[in-house]
Design a protein that fits this description.
The chain has 14 helices and 17 strands.
Amino acid sequence: MKSNRGRRRHRHRRDLQKAAGNGDRLNKLPDDCLSELPNDVLLNILERVGTLDAVRTCILSKQMRNLPTMLSQIVIVPRDHDLVRMNVVVAEVIDNIISTRSPLITISKLKVRFVLTPNDCRSIGKSVSLAMATQIVDKAEFEIVTPQNSFYCTHADLVNFGKQFSMFVADCQDAFAGLTRLKLQNLRFGESDIPIILSTCKRLESLIFFECDAGIRSVLHVEHDRLVEIDITYGEFKTVELDCPKLQRMTYDNWPCDENPLVLGFVPQLSKLSLANEGLSDKTVMISQLLANAPAVTDLYLDFRSEKIWIRPECPRVLAPVLGQLRFVNLDCLPEECDIVWTMFLLEAAPSVEDLCISVRDHKCGSESHKTRCKKMDVKWEQTLPNFKHKNLGKLTIYGFQSDSNFIGYIRRVMEAAVNINEVSLHDRKVCKPCTDLFPHIEVRPSTYPRSCEEKALLRNKITEASVMMASPAVIHFRT
């Protein structure tokens, strides 16, 4: 024991001497190692953090003090809880960087997130206008947040914010003329405001509206030569009409009206369409009419919010002309009570589909009540092609799979039709913690998803035993 204690004391003394030696070497290093690095290396490091952090870092060193004016990316995105407090700081930092930087340095990315307050907005707008006038700016983005959360906004608040923003655009037209991305929230515009904003933002490629409109049951007509992406969430538009020759991606969540919520006019390049809504009436959307002018759609995402299905199955002869290029289909939040076999109508009409994903669940955390707000009914569909075969479908994914006739029969039907399918991925129900927190007393039906290897093997055989023409059971995977 005495020998062991001696060895430990010796080893401890040796470690202390080694640490002391390291300390001596560290003391011999320059006081400011970071500032000794070449400027290109320092700029590379600084551009990996936010611009505000880069400015704070450079203040500590006299040699680095001018580096923020040499950044090719100016990204100032304060966190939500800092937004109001940092608004003045954001305006000052933007002004200091842009007013003192060389016009020979291209700004590859300018992104600013700030609160809609008149004085700060005007300061930021004037600084960005200067950048647009004196320098090359590849990409520029404004994300403008209102002082109040949408939950607390009255009609008068929305109108007031809309007027403030329109005045901001009028005062800083050069800044908006150079924007490529604009993200807005909680604004109620006048009738002519949105067309004026779109005509001012000549370079705009991405437009994002959250809780924005031009009044209840207003019509939004978007006509723009350079828009590539439009994302609209909530708002009170009766109809959204699009005439955008370069539009590629369109997302529309939660429209309030059932009559022609979306009219796709001249959108020859539209390839990705995402729609999400609660079907609370008897009105349904006909895909053949919706996509009549958008035959280039390759990716279709439909979210039913665990309510009634709001699209109407149509015969392949009518649908095929508009779904000829469709390759990816994602049907999200189908209600648990409904049969899913109706989704076959999309495969019948879309011969190029390679990937079909279906999610079945009762997802209610976005609702005020766990109860269904409308009567869910099975969608009426009859197979029109009795010997239908699909040559391109390679993957079927189902979230919310249960070991019942609804799912087993559907998978069997898809596998019989899809002659080249190579993967069927089956997942248990998605667990949504916000749902369980919001409605803690609601009983969840026990899952019948297979757990053991024996249960999974039996299900594979049960699905595939009906036909010798079907793919091997080995393509069926139970994902955990």
